[in-house]
Write a structure and sequence with these properties.
This protein is globular. Helix content is about 30%, strand content about 20%. The strands form two sheets. It has a seven-stranded mixed β-sheet. The N and C termini lie far apart (about 40 Å). The chain folds into two domains: about 5-130 and about 300-310, 3-Layer(aba) Sandwich (Rossmann fold), CATH 3.40.50.720; about 135-295, 2-Layer Sandwich (Dihydrodipicolinate Reductase, domain 2), CATH 3.30.360. Helix 1 packs across helix 10 (about 295-310) and helix 6 runs parallel beside helix 8. The protein has helices spanning about 20-30, 65-75, 90-100, 105-110, 120-125, 135-150, 180, 200-205, 230-235, 295-310; strands spanning about 10-15, 35-40, 55-60, 80, 115, 130, 155-165, 185-190, 210-215, 220-230, 255, 275-280, 285-290. The protein is of the alpha/beta class.
Length: about 325
């Protein structure tokens, strides 16, 4: 609804542009052919620091800040794309369980369109787009095509391990991002049901996710490997022998199925996601490996992809490969 009223070359304001994802957004939007002006604002200064003439506000801010800012911006007529997890959970109870704080504007949770694989029509009528989290993006890039093809049923158990580069923890330093902790180490964190991205993966797919995230001594990049039960599908397709049906992630031009298990370097500083599958008939499970650049596909470039479709621009406008933190 808002797209026809907006000029082709828009003013976009980035709140939180000093973070890793925010810097990548500045780079991508600064050379975007349909963006006329890019401004920045500090979340600490509140809504009043954000220009009124910005048609879109991109929040590259912590979840607590995004939760405070998004609804007031919508109320004054601006569209919001949120890179944080503040608007992914769908309801206040699930949000508080995942993120540890009560949402100050719970109505925004039902207003938000989840921007993993939402249609262009959905995005073009959205006032608030919730960009997916990095782990969620990698996991859903593997699981959603399987569900779309009828291979994975609602309620299936997914067992996965995720490995992230240090930049996934953000730019604020902590003991867990120091060289003496990260170097020559592989550290699990937020195990069990503690990781905040579980809520959006399970909400989108209806699976039950067992997930172990790990931090690796990498600057950027993310790999998720796991398997999912396909007993029900095999029972309906008894003649299947190591042969999955054709798989696609809707019309996403950045999704690629690859013949061999991919490596993180294959997508470093790129906007694509590479996914590999293997059907193990004896175990009645499908193995998958999914790799992304956590700052691009996992954050900034997926945000630009959503913005392009929300505004009716070419889906890949402004999406050149090559990141800042190489």
């Amino acid at each position: 609804m808002h797209t026809p009223q907006l000029p082709d070359r828009q003013h976009i304001c980035i709140a939180g542009a000093t973070g890793y994802a925010g810097q990548e957004l500045l780079r991508l939007l600064g050379r975007h052919p349909h963006v006329g002006q890019v401004s920045t604002a500090t979340a600490r200064q509140g809504v009043d620091a954000i220009p009124l003439d910005a048609q879109w506000v991109v929040l590259a801010t912590p979840a607590e800040s995004s939760a405070e800012l998004a609804w007031p911006l919508i109320q004054r007529g601006q569209c919001v794309l949120d890179l944080s997890g503040a608007h992914r959970a769908g309801d206040p109870v699930a949000h508080e369980h995942a993120y540890g704080f009560a949402h100050p504007h719970p109505q925004a949770l039902t207003e938000a369109v989840y921007g993993f694989d939402a249609s262009s029509a959905e995005l073009q009528t959205a006032k608030l787009i919730a960009n997916p989290g990095c782990y969620a993006n990698a996991l859903l890039s593997a699981l959603v095509p399987l569900q779309a093809a009828g291979v994975v049923a609602t309620g299936a158990v997914v067992d996965a391990t995720g490995i992230s580069g240090v930049s996934g923890a953000g730019r604020t330093p902590s003991e867990r991002t120091m060289y003496m902790y990260v170097a020559e180490n592989l550290a699990p964190y937020r195990t069990g049901r503690a990781h905040q991205h579980l809520v959006e993966v399970e909400r989108r797919t209806g699976v039950h996710l067992l997930f172990v995230p790990l931090v690796a001594p990498l600057r950027r990049g993310m790999l998720v490997a796991g398997s999912v039960d396909v007993t029900e599908w095999l029972a309906k397709n008894p003649l299947v022998h190591k042969q999955l049906p054709p798989l696609r992630l809707g019309d996403d031009p950045l999704w690629q199925q690859v013949a061999n298990a991919p490596e993180v370097l294959a997508v470093a500083e790129q906007n694509t996601v590479h996914v590999h599958y293997y059907l193990d008939v004896a175990a009645r499970r499908v193995q998958f490996v999914s790799v992304i650049d956590n700052l691009l596909r996992g954050a900034a470039s997926h945000a630009v992809y959503n913005l392009n479709r929300a505004c009716g621009w070419p889906a890949l406008a402004g999406l050149d490969d090559g990141g800042i933190y190489e």
